[in-house]
Design brief:
The complex is a heterodimer of chains A (507) and B (197). By secondary structure, chain A is of the alpha+beta class. Chain A is built from 14 helices and ten strands. Chain A folds into three domains: 72 residues, 2-Layer Sandwich (Phosphorylase Kinase, domain 1), CATH 3.30.200.20; 157 residues, Transferase(Phosphotransferase), domain 1, CATH 1.10.510.10; 179 residues, no CATH class. In chain A, the strands form three sheets. In chain A, strands 1-2-3-5-4 form a five-stranded antiparallel β-sheet, with helices on one face. In chain A, strands 6-8-9 form a three-stranded antiparallel β-sheet. Chain A has a two-stranded antiparallel ribbon with strand order 7-10. In chain A, helix 12 packs antiparallel against helix 13. By secondary structure, chain B is of the alpha+beta class. Chain B folds into two domains: 94 residues, no CATH class; 55 residues. Chain B contains six helices and three strands, in the order H-H-E-H-H-E-E-H-H. Chain B has a three-stranded antiparallel β-sheet with strand order 1-3-2. In chain B, strand 2 and strand 3 form a beta hairpin. The two termini of chain B are 47 Å apart. Classes of the chains: A alpha+beta (507), B alpha+beta (197). Chains A and B meet through helix 8, helix 9, helix 12 and helix 13 of A and helix 1 and helix 5 of B.
């Protein structure tokens, strides 16, 4: 992503740009520092400046803890307009949702939604419709929700769409009435409903291959609420009503409805089966005694995974890869000390363990870091690992002094190496060992698994060929890989297991 | 960890620890499913060549004959292995036999010279040993190359990781300085590796 200005430039008097932090349809955003030392975000307004600036002007004097503060509107020497804003160091909600493909813990979704609702209600109270509510415009900083990007905000009074205006909002969050051109603050209620839906399920209610298809679904298709927790059904049914008059009259009202849902009560409750539409429990017959529910014991409150940006991921990966070298060197030295080879063979013996282990660990760490696990992609990952393992096998064969003469015993041995590593990578779910929230920081089970598969494959593929010296080393390499990958991957304590009674209660 | 896991781990260690000796004693070239060869067949001579060496002394003539044999082996037999046996290897493994020497008069400036005849015989098992040795040498060579590549990769990772961490910590205040430092380190690293390689 190339920005117009680079670090250290001063296109606007009084501010030094430090780095570009984002780019959108309406301009570029930079992190900058004022001459006095104040850290701010500077937005260079591009495109249809009038629309943008009109919205900004409306919001300049708004103050709310859940809104990104706008400080000023400035013009540089070239006549470009800049918006001086509060700098938010946290991540946007869409990045967090990407890491939670099955939705956020309910307690967290509820808390964050209330922050969003308060901010939007405040905007509405001041006659402003946001018009572009979406997870990418909602930021989380120190657990606090901040609604930003007022680029499209406009006064409620001028809601009639004209030919000059841009299309309003982002298609996944676009209320049906926007297509008619006659809309009001209810479009924000609708968008907030979609965001709540997404926070709870990890996906938007209406998706499609084209904008037209999605818009048509907004207009005609009722949202699929089968995966929504029961207590949220009435709220979302109302917020996502096609007719704006059937939605909540205000965001405050919607916030109250969400607030009324018992806090923490369903923080870790499994959802209803996906294909069976969830239905509200039937009301008790008249006159029957209503059973009194016993008070719920305190339940674990889940928290979202901490924000890990792409930059942080790269930093972590660099650290992990360097640690791999360190741990592998230690393991190889230990192995060589146990084996006590001849002095002439010492380094070769060490290298035969060291290089393949480093290659295997790196081959597992790199894709795992950038390929977020999603439900149902296990086989795809296995096949990707099969290919990667094959490459590792070829590299290991090369390092073991093999030649690639096809139709020869050497070529056959090379193929054995290829198959050994490809199948060993395919056989195990290696990416699980690198997961941030794996069950244990370090477990012996994967080492045993790797050893087992190594033994089986070695007996099947390597030993029959019998030109490879010390084939047992291949098992050692796999076992060490399983251990080292766990040791170098960041780990966080996973949430407490859900009590069986809780699962039964919500089943 | 449960006791069964520890037991499995112990079994695995035993297996891994015992496989190398098993493999070391294994015939590395014999196909597993092939017919079993007799010891006489094992010792079949693959290479049988005669070489002549010339020199002022008998020692020099022998050395010349050995060098001729080494060159011949490198050119015609083991060229594709990237390693072929040297004179010491041939002597150490008893692959050569000197059986005839004589004095021969040549035109000046050569004069009288010792002429040595040498028999080079390489059996099947010795040929296998040479292949193993060649692979061992290639392994050494490639480990050296892999080590250099690894050093380069580690340097790159350290520089990238360090740059990102420092850039993050300083929030872009020293971006330019950090970039210059990072690029300088990388240049030095690449130059160092080129020299070492």
């Amino acid at each position: 992503m190339k920005f117009t200005y680079s670090s250290g430039q001063r296109p606007l008097d009084g501010f030094t740009l430090k780095r570009g932090i984002g780019r959108g349809g309406f301009g570029e955003v930079y992190f900058a520092v004022s001459d006095g030392g104040k850290e701010v975000a500077l937005k260079l307004v591009r495109g249809d400046t009038q629309i943008e600036l009109r919205g900004v002007a409306q919001c300049l004097n708004l103050k709310h803890p859940n809104l990104v503060n706008l400080y000023d509107l400035r013009t540089d020497h070239h006549g470009d307009r800049w918006v001086v804003m509060e700098y938010i160091a946290g991540e946007p909600l869409n990045v967090i949702l990407n890491r939670h493909p099955n939705g956020l813990p309910r307690e967290l979704a509820r808390e964050w939604f209330l922050g969003l609702a308060r901010a939007v209600a405040y905007l509405h109270d001041h006659g402003i419709v946001h018009r572009d509510l979406k997870p990418a415009n909602i930021f989380l900083e120190n657990g606090m929700v901040k609604v930003g990007d007022y680029g499209l905000s406009k006064a409620i009074g001028s809601s009639q769409r004209t030919a000059q205006t841009h299309s309003v909002g982002t298609v996944h969050y676009m209320a049906p009435e926007i297509s008619t051109g006659n809309y009001g603050k209810q479009i924000d209620t609708y968008a907030a409903g979609i965001i709540l839906y997404e926070m709870l399920t990890g996906r938007v209610p209406f998706d499609g291959e084209s904008s037209g298809e999605i818009l048509m679904k907004h207009l005609t298709t009722p949202p699929d609420l089968s995966q929504i927790p029961t207590e949220y059904l009435p709220v979302l049914s109302k917020a996502l009503a096609k007719n704006p008059s059937q939605r909540y009259a205000s965001m405050t009202e919607m916030a109250r409805a969400v607030e009324a849902i018992e806090a923490g009560g369903a923080a870790s409750v499994p959802r209803a089966p996906s294909r069976v539409p969830a239905a509200a429990p039937p009301p008790p017959p008249k006159g029957a005694a209503v059973p009194v529910r016993p008070p719920r014991p305190p339940e674990p409150v889940l928290v979202a995974l901490p924000a890990v940006s792409r930059r942080a991921q790269v930093m972590e990966l660099c650290g992990s890869m360097l640690l791999v070298v360190l741990f592998t060197a230690l393991g190889s030295i230990l192995w060589t000390a146990i084996r006590q080879p001849k002095a002439d063979d010492l380094l070769v013996e060490m290298g035969r363990v060291f290089f393949p282990t480093v290659a295997a660990c790196w081959a597992i760490l790199v894709p795992s870091k950038f390929w977020t696990e999603r439900r149902g992609d296990s086989w795809l990952r296995r096949f990707a690992l099969l290919a990667i393992g094959g490459l590792v096998g070829v590299a290991c064969w090369w390092m073991d002094g093999g030649s690639f003469a096809f139709l020869s015993i050497q070529g056959a041995a090379g193929m054995s190496y290829f198959s050994f590593y490809a199948l060993a990578f395919f056989a195990m779910r290696w990416w699980r060992l690198t997961a941030r929230r794996r069950a244990h920081r370090f477990s012996f089970a994967p080492i045993l698994g790797a050893g087992f598969w190594g033994l089986v494959l070695m007996l099947l593929l390597i030993r029959p060929l019998s030109i490879i010296p010390n084939p047992g080393l291949l098992i050692l390499v796999l076992a060490m890989t399983a251990a080292i990958v766990q040791l170098v991957s960041p780990w966080e304590q996973p949430p407490a297991p859900i009590a069986k009674r809780l699962r039964l209660r919500y089943a | 960890m449960r006791i069964t896991n520890w037991l499995c781990l112990a079994v695995l260690c035993l297996v891994v620890g015992n496989l190398p000796p098993l493999a070391a004693g294994h015939d590395h070239r014999r196909p597993a499913a092939g017919p079993k060869k007799t010891p006489v067949q094992e010792e079949k001579t693959l290479i049988h060549e005669e070489f002549t060496g010339y020199g002022k002394s008998e020692f020099a003539a022998r050395k010349d004959a050995l060098n001729n044999a080494c060159t011949w082996l490198k050119q015609y037999k083991y060229g594709e292995l990237n390693w072929s046996p040297d004179a010491d290897y041939l002597l150490e493994h008893k692959m050569v036999q000197f059986y005839e020497w004589e004095d021969k008069k040549f035109d000046e400036p050569m004069g009288v010279m010792k002429v040595v005849k040498m028999q080079l015989a390489i059996t099947d098992s010795q040929d296998r040993d040479i292949h193993k040795q060649a692979q061992h040498q290639r392994m050494k060579e490639r480990h050296k190359q892999a080590f250099l590549v690894l050093l380069g990769a580690m340097g790159l990772l350290s520089v990238v990781g360090g740059y990102l961490r420092l850039e993050e910590a300083t929030k872009g205040y020293y971006t330019r300085l950090l970039r210059i430092a990072a690029i300088s380190i990388l240049v030095v690293l690449v130059a160092g590796l080129c020299v070492a390689g």
